[in-house]
């Protein structure tokens, strides 16, 4: 069982979250209070302060990373179901297989208001472009009119109302922020604290073995796209995964999460390694074949030396798989010699 953290440590955590895009209101309750006594709970999520009158009991999640954040916190019994395409890898070998078996898979298509209503959801946990969007009419404001609360994935926070660019903090900080906020909302602070401590220790262990900055291989994340590659800026998961694993993220100057760049930028930055995001209709093998046959990339170091590394989608979006993904990539990068 996780050990309850001292009150002083919880206070420090709450202060650390202030101004990070999501923070929780100070808790004035004592351990003797029942969960019902500890609501309402106020949380500032992506710059919007929301008061939740009671712990959600019928949560609908969108996509694999978001779903697994709930599972990692042991909250599958608070879920009405999840929405996820079936292109997100093998779910049978993940630590949360039992939770996947227990929670209904509501749809393999896009999440909609109708899905939430049919599931009698009291909260939808999704992200901007991870389910929420004005184009599909699914927004926290629209759900509120239906009596359904929302929580927005912090990795996806937009920089302003209607803004295109996303991301307001480093990716791992976004993960820790969501774990702490959801721990508060569902009264599982001890679980959240234990996960955050474990993940930070795992990341620190990998980072401690990283080479000196001057010796780090440069890394480009390739999601998909032929005319223009979709990649990661500094606010999406791959930035921290690459950096903490001992790589130099070549797109670290992009003030966005997931976005497109020009191939000429990739060529100019000449990455030593290309990481492929494995998901979608185009297989990792086809993505690799394209990269190796695309003439403008012929002289890029990663292509010349056949340094292409494949990672699963769920490793690269904000999720509880991020720390293990860092450890695995770190092992690969330690074997890369760029001299």
UniProtKB/TrEMBL annotation:
Keyword terms of this UniProt record: Signal
Annotated CDD domains: TroA_a (cd01148)
Domain Fe/B12 periplasmic-binding: 58-339
Keyword Cell division: no
Source domain of life: Bacteria
Signal sequence, start to end: 1-24
Keyword check for Glycoprotein: no
InterPro entries: ABC_Transporter_SBP, ABC_transptr_periplasmic_BD
Family: Belongs to the bacterial solute-binding protein 8 family.
Name used for this protein in its record: Iron transporter
Organism of this sequence: Streptomyces albospinus
